[in-house]
Amino acid sequence: MKIGIDKIGFYAPHLYLDMNELAKERGVEPEKFTIGIGQEKMAVSPITQDTVTLAANAAAQILDDTDKQDIDMVIFGTESGIDHSKSAAVNVHQLLGLQPHARAIELKQACYGATAGIQMARGHIALNPNRKVLVLGSDIARYGLKTPGESTQGAGAVALLISAEPRIMEIEQESTYYTDDIMDFWRPVYSDTAFVDGKYSNEQYIAFFQKVWNSYKEQTDRSLEDFAAICFHLPYTKMGLKALRTVLDEVGEETQTRLKDQYQLSTQYNRNIGNIYTGSLYLSLLSLLENSEELKAGDKIGMYSYGSGAVGEFFSGILQEGFEKQLHHTEHNAMFEKRQKISVSEYEKIFEQQIPTDGSVAEWSTNEDPAEICLTGMQNHQRVYQVK
Q: Which of 14, 93, 124, 233 is catalytic?
């Protein structure tokens, strides 16, 4: 029985900041952002959007009434959770109107959470082939104004419907993973911004990739030649390329060229959104599927997932016949085109807006937010959501 990705949804806030303008304001050569790390635009989340609404909006695009009845598990991968106790999956479950006889949980391991969710979903579907699992990767990356990590911020969510006989990609059983207790990136519970040792984190990202890739080769007897493309977790779009380059000498020039070309296509969406932590790998996959003209049914796609702290995994999927019919390239292009550019000063004002943490009542207008599902305020220490 095949198990894998049946549908993919994606949502990002309607606001963005041009990285050229951020660079100039910060006294940095623009090429450091646009070429050095490979970022052109940064999605900026208004106060009317949080990780719950981003995930719910991403899922609302793809779920029909049958899906809502068949889903009996919601797994929410995030490192931007809104509650230390209640899972964001429960909020999304209610906002989407899913049938009540379902499990709803939240997973946390930095940017790896959604991958863990997919692997858990595979096991559930194997035991319950008539059911479906909604896996969400939703985050708002915050490092702070004028910090070294500011240029790698972003916001967005990816929703994946996992089922038997998937129409987009079968997830293969073979996977390799590796864990080590390191401090390359972390966010203590008392901080709303992350801490990162950038150089060390980059080194560990590559080291973990080499470990899981070498283990994968040993276990499967496969090589780079077996893959039409490899997608990477992308904290910024140059990061995956750095890792890919360390193994390209294993194959000839033709394969190297193919993998590098497909890699560039996989970065197009991330380049214009920024880092979305748990969703970044799957935004890369979506970008590849919707922008490549070379992919065909039966192609094998490699996937490298990395979550600081750290956990890494390499696994693969096989594209299914007619996969392209399940994509929403036109709608996603329209979403990008409709976004509103904001100035650096507007971005800074939005960044400094805070959701009350002292029990204060707050109310925000959603008139300027085109999203179907929004955050409208705070009452009794509870977030108040609206489905328009």
A: 233
Among candidate residues 111, 172, 231, 374, the one labeled active-site is 111
Please say if 79 is a catalytic residue: yes
Q: pLDDT exceeding 70 applies to what percent of the chain?
A: 100
In the annotation, is 233 catalytic? yes
d(CA 157, CA 155): 7
| Amino acid at the residue 75 | I
Query: pTM to 2 decimals?
Result: 0.97
Our measurement of the distance from residue 35's CA atom to the centroid of its chain's CA atoms, rounded to an integer in Å, reads 22
Burial 276-302 (b: 16+ CB within 10 A, else e): bbbbbbbbbbbbbbbbbeebeeebbbb
Residue 192 has pLDDT above 90, yes or no: no
Mean pLDDT over the full length of the chain:
97
In the annotation, is 111 catalytic? yes
Estimate the share of the chain in helix, then strand, then coil, as percent rounded to the nearest 5: 40, 30, 35
Task: For residue 336, count CB atoms less than 10 angstroms from its CB and return exposed for 0-12, middle for 13-18, buried for 19 or more.
Answer: middle
